[in-house]
Amino acid sequence: MKVNRNDPCWCGSGKKYKYCHEEFDRRIEKARLEGHKVPDHKIIKTPEQVEKIRESAKINMACLDEVAKQIHEGMSTLEIDNIINDVTYGMGGIPAPLNYEGFPKSVCTSVNDQVCHGIPSADVILRDGDIVNVDCSTILDGYFSDSSRMFLIGNVSEEKQDLVRVAKECCDLGLEKVKPWGFLGDVGEAVHTHAEEHGYSVVREIGGHGVGLEFHEDPFVSYVTNAGEDMLMVPGMMFTIEPMVNAGTYQFYTDESNGWEVYTLDGEPSAQWEYQVLVTEDGYEVISN
Description:
Elements: H1 22-33, H2 47-70, H3 77-90, E1 94-95, E2 108-111, E3 114-116, E4 131-140, E5 143-152, H4 158-176, H5 184-197, E6 201-202, E7 208-210, E8 217-221, E9 238-241, E10 244-246, E11 252-254, E12 262-264, E13 270-272, E14 275-279, E15 284-288
Antiparallel strand pairs: 1-4, 2-4, 3-12, 4-5, 6-10, 7-8, 9-14, 10-13, 11-12, 14-15
């Protein structure tokens, strides 16, 4: 629907369109006419929505902080799930993964060669030398937050330590490329270039996503794209930076017995960190990490 200049702005600010998002929309339309992929209004977060999402993120990060305090050799990944439940429900939230499309637990715990979606279990015991990704997603009053961290258990080999470190550096370098009126491909190029320079690969078919009003929103965020490609980044967009960096091949397979757990095809380890990021007027804000 066309908005007249003197109508209330579509964002809900109460201001007239001409004083609010008219110039913003003109810049988006210019990019579209130049052949770029551009965001819909529905994925642009209002200041009020951002504030609600920040509150959800407080729970999200508190969960990972508590895991960091308690994680140790000999504990099961089910115990990690219990920590997430205790903190999330204790702070008034809901674990977003629980029963999401049939996922049976409240958090993803992916160990060593598991790329993602590891299902917590009493039978999976953390051993000396393991690396594990804990991917936590939270709902508070209908608003979503999502981030993950890597944890090193006991005496971890230098090879695995390097992989975890480089995966974190990939996220940080991608984050530096988050700028209004840039492109998601700027982020993707920074990520895969750094990974490949260290001899690693980045998973292609699984990537980041918009988040905030839903668990998974547009856009899909690839980390194997090139600068200047993919969707235009604009203030109010929110998405995750979460490349899955593999020590060997980028290829993977999904465990057919549960339909969730993803493993590297060659059995080499994988590492992943995840940031939830808001595009601002002058750069970015990390919402959850």
